[in-house]
Amino acid sequence: MSGHRVDAAISQRLADLALAVVVGALAVAVAAQDADTTALDHGLLVVGAAALAFYRAAPLVVLALATASGVAYVLHAHPGPLGALTVFAAVHLASQLGRRSWAAAASGIFLGAYAATGPTVHEAVEKTALLAGWFVCAVVTGLAGRNWQAYLRQTEQRALEAERTREEAALRRAGEERLRIARELHDSLTHSISIVKLQAGVAVHLARKRGEEVPPALLAIQEAGGEAMRELRATLEVLRTDEPTGTPALLVERARAAGLAVELSVTGEERALPAPLDRAVYRIVQESLTNAARHAGPAKVRVELAYGKDELTVRVEDDGAARADRPPRPGHGLTGMRERVTALGGTLRTGPREEGGFVVRAQLPLGAGESVRAEVGA
Question: What residues form DSSP beta bridges with 306?
């Protein structure tokens, strides 16, 4: 975002410089048509035109300088109406920036000096009246331009506010839908799984009490019931809150405790991330480690977080059983991961490595989380 602001500032400076060059060139070209124009006259015109390049930074200084040089020029050279070009531009720009009183005062001073150059009162009034109309137009068009810019800014603000409201509504609806699904899962599955687990536990207990051998199938049902309950609780927790429950470093520690050989490396300047981006990084590492534990076999896993100037690269690779000639079929986990990355404006590459194993590589713009509020759940 900062890069866009810098580019806009440079473009603005170049536009102001171009304005000063064009006005100066026109004023000097018109003055050159008069054989009596001296180097001093050209210098006064150049000074007035050059000041226009800085009108945004110091509008009143630029207006004063352009008016003073313009007054000096008309009193010395007695030019025609086009000699007021640099002052006319300065008055218009000052009015556009909201300095209409100063612009009107500068117009009056210049017109007074211009009227003093008339050989007769009638000619002075006639010339000044024509030029006064130009200056009135300069002030009015400056005000109109200012009002138009304010209208555009207001319209843009309304559009941004409407977009923000839509995103918040979408995020709220997504949260409500997650809660509804969690309630449905809890009501429909928890009771049934609990009954199965309880009945299997009672059967195992009675068999042991009677001194009978417990059937392996019954033990498998009891163990599967307990595992199903744990998985269901974890699923319900994810549905009820989409917030991460830790950091990538904590995920690595948990994976190590579970027997997976994992190492974590962080390069670049580590920094706090916007919430959507932080969630995406956590889920990518979580899903990648889960897949490695399930499918890679006895493998070594490496997790890399590379912080760049404008981009964060998340890379998780293993040297497990995956082969390039037998690419795995993408499951729901990889699909959800890709949806998260795409929603944040990033890119994701997944697949077997040439040397064996599997790699997940996500490139995420660091500014994405500031504008993206709603994301697709995994």
Answer: 267, 313
Query: Which sign, positive or negative, has the C-alpha torsion 101, 102, 104, 109?
Result: positive
Question: CA–CA separation, 72 vs 193, rounded Å?
Answer: 95
Q: Is 311 helix (H, G, I), strand (E, B) or coil?
A: strand
- Surface-to-core class of residue 257, CB atoms within 10 Å of its CB (0-12 exposed, 13-18 middle, 19+ buried): exposed
Dist. CA 189–CA 187, nearest whole Å: 6
Distance, CA of 1 to CA of 371 (rounded, Å): 11
C-alpha distances out from residue 58 to 8, 23, 61, 367, Å: 19, 18, 5, 33
**Helices within 56-120 (DSSP H only):** 59-77, 85-96, 100-115
* Integer Cα distance of 292 and 349 in angstroms: 16
Q: Closest Cα partner for 242 from 375, 85, 335?
A: 375
* Cα separations in angstroms, 281 against 224, 304, 344: 31, 11, 11
Residue 308 makes CB contacts below 8 A (sequence gap 6+) with 268, 366
pLDDT per 10-residue tile (average), the chain, 378 residues: 58 82 83 79 84 85 87 80 80 84 85 73 64 76 79 81 73 74 72 77 84 82 78 69 70 83 90 84 87 79 91 90 72 77 88 87 77 40
Question: What is the C-alpha separation between 110 and 68, in angstroms, rounded?
Answer: 8
The number of helix segments (H) and strand segments (E) in the chain equals 12, 5
Query: Residues for the chain: how many in total?
Result: 378
pLDDT of residue 123: 63
End-to-end CA distance of the chain: 28
DSSP state of 186: I
Query: CB atoms < 10 A from the CB of 354, how many?
Result: 8
Please check whether residue 320 is in contact with residue 297, taking contact to mean a CB–CB distance below 8 angstroms: yes
Coil, helix or strand at residue 265: strand
pLDDT of residue 106: 85
